[in-house]
Structures are given as structure tokens and as C-alpha cells.
Automatic annotation (TrEMBL):
It comes from the Bacteria. Belongs to the short-chain dehydrogenases/reductases (SDR) family. Keywords: NADP, Oxidoreductase. It comes from Leptospira idonii. This is SDR family NAD(P)-dependent oxidoreductase. Transmembrane segments: none annotated. GO terms for molecular function: oxidoreductase activity. InterPro entries: NAD(P)-bd_dom_sf, Sc_DH/Rdtase_CS, SDR_fam.
Length: 249
């Protein structure tokens, strides 16, 4: 039986929460089917209920990805958990999948953005993934199968008005994914850049000019993104681009 450990950063709402629920629902194991994967799924975000120092599968754990002391707590927990997991024979055959679903929107004309909000935006949307990957790097490289999925955006392909910061951070995430893929090729780590069109999540709540009825539903997007965890071994999917029926809104 395959064992999978799924890590979802930004599991408090929207796509991250949708993924957490999707994996929880999928985790009904038929004891007669030896091919079914056992999935442990761990969420992380500010509103998590679980403690960052005591991980429970199926739980969202409290972790502000922009705070250095909380990143340090995550490092300690990751190291402790890894040394426990490594006691299990065949640990290196566990499949690890990391989803980066944390992020916020910053939508204003360039002249109205102040430095602090630009820094906060980049800290969450770009730097936090880099910090977490530095911590998880050894573990991900040791496994016979690891994947990293970035929730990128149409805003990493095109520019939009009042979106300089958002488009810049999303283009940067796309650059991070492309480089990481080359850097970790030697260890066979799959790095998937998922360019997402509009999906009906709370990130759109302050933008009434866009109708959620024109968007991909959260359930459909979560189901689709969860499928990326189950690629055949020899398939390396670099990029995927999805939009709602209307295309780019
Ligand atoms: N929805 C779309 O149309 C769309 C399209 C393309 C790309 N995306 C990208 O998908 C990602 C998820 O967005 P979403 O649409 O699901 O929006 P969302 O519902 O606003 O989700 C944002 C997530 O980030 C977490 N988060 C925010 N600040 C955090 C912090 N400091 N530390 C840890 N976690 C934090 C939130 O949880 P807490 O509040 O609990 O911290 C929440 O889980 C974003 O990167 C977004 O750019 C979305």
C-alpha cells in the first residue's frame, strides 16, 4: 500500500481549505484494496486549531508563515517529525506532496501602494514558500517521490490594471517554480506550476466588480488540484493552466 503525506500551507480558507477537505474525504480506505494510498494530510495557516509543535493528520495547524519565530517552530517540528517517521521501515518510499496555497490579494493603483504593504504581500506570497522549502529540502530530496505544487495564477502570465504587486509576486512564484524544478531535478522532485484562472474563493470578496458565478467553483478546483498528487511515477507535469468557461475575467 502506498503512503502519502500531504502538506497544505494556507489551509485556513479558499483553495487550501478546499484541498484539506478533499483529501480528508478521499481518505476512506478499502482494506481489501492494497493499491489504495494511506494519506496523512497536514494543513497550516494562521487560523489553524492544532498546535504547530504537535501535528495531527486531518488538522489545520496554527502557523503564520510571515513570522520568523513561527517559521523556526515549524523547522523544529519538521525535524522532530522526520526523525520519528524515519524509524518506520520503508519511510523513504513515502510520497510527499506540498501545496503552497497561502496568499493574499493587493489590488490598487501603483501610486497608492505603500512600501509596508508591498513587503507584507511579497513576504506571504513569495518569501514564505522559499523559507518553508529551505526547511523541507533535505526530506523532500530523500524521498523516492516528492512533489511541490505552487498555486500560481493567470496573473503570472498576463498583466492587469491595479494589480502591479499581485502580478509581480505571481510572476515571481512562477520563476521560483521554474528554477526549483531545474535545481531539484537531480533528486527527481516534481515541481508543478498550476496557473489558475478565477476560482470562487474569499480572495475575491472585496472585488464586487467580479461575479463568483463566472468563476470555477471551489469544489471543482479542489478536486482538480488534488488529482495532481496522483500522477503516474514517470510523469513529470511542469505546468498546468485552467480557466473558467469565460476564460480570463
Ligand atoms: N481564487 C482565485 O481565483 C485564485 C486564482 C489564482 C491563484 N490563486 C492563488 O491561490 C492561493 C489561495 O488563494 P484563495 O483564492 O484560496 O484565497 P483565500 O481564501 O484568501 O486563501 C488565502 C489562504 O492564505 C492563508 N494565509 C493568509 N495569510 C497567511 C499567513 N500570514 N500565514 C499563513 N497562512 C496565511 C489563509 O488562511 P488564514 O487566514 O487562516 O491564515 C488562507 O488559507 C493564493 O496564493 C492566490 O493568489 C487564487
Amino acid at each position: 500500500m502506498k503512503h502519502r503525506k500531504i502538506f497544505i500551507f494556507g489551509a485556513g480558507s479558499g483553495l487550501g481549505e478546499g484541498l484539506l477537505l478533499e483529501f480528508q474525504q478521499r481518505n476512506h480506505i478499502d482494506p481489501k484494496d492494497s493499491s489504495v494510498a494511506v494519506v496523512d494530510v497536514y494543513g497550516f495557516s494562521r487560523s489553524g486549531k492544532g498546535s504547530i509543535s504537535n501535528w495531527q493528520s486531518g488538522t489545520n495547524h496554527r502557523f503564520d508563515l510571515t513570522l520568523e519565530d513561527e517559521i523556526e517552530s515549524f523547522r523544529k517540528s519538521w525535524e522532530t517529525q522526520c526523525s520519528e517517521w524515519k524509524q518506520n521501515p520503508g519511510w523513504e518510499h513515502t510520497q510527499i506532496i506540498v501545496y503552497f496555497a497561502q496568499g493574499d490579494g493587493l489590488f490598487s493603483p501603483l501610486e497608492e501602494l505603500n512600501l509596508l504593504e508591498i513587503q507584507k504581500h511579497f513576504s506571504l506570497n513569495l518569501f514564505s514558500s522559499m523559507r518553508v522549502l529551505q526547511i523541507m529540502s533535505d526530506g523532500l530530496k530523500q524521498m523516492s517521490s516528492s512533489s511541490v505544487v505552487f498555486l500560481s495564477s493567470t496573473a503570472a502570465k498576463f498583466g492587469f490594471p491595479n494589480s502591479t504587486a499581485y502580478c509581480a509576486s505571481k510572476h515571481a512564484v512562477s520563476g521560483l517554480a521554474k528554477s526549483l524544478r531545474e535545481e531539484w531535478k537531480l533528486w527527481g522532485v516534481k515541481v508543478i506550476n498550476a496557473y489558475l484562472g478565477a476560482i470562487a474563493t474569499p480572495i475575491w470578496d472585496d472585488r464586487p466588480e467580479f461575479s463568483k458565478s463566472d468563476m470555477v467553483t471551489l469544489e471543482d478546483a479542489s478536486r482538480f488540484l488534488a488529482e495532481l498528487s496522483d500522477l503516474p511515477d514517470s510523469v513529470y507535469l511542469d505546468e498546468v493552466y485552467i480557466t473558467p468557461k469565460k476564460g480570463v475575467l
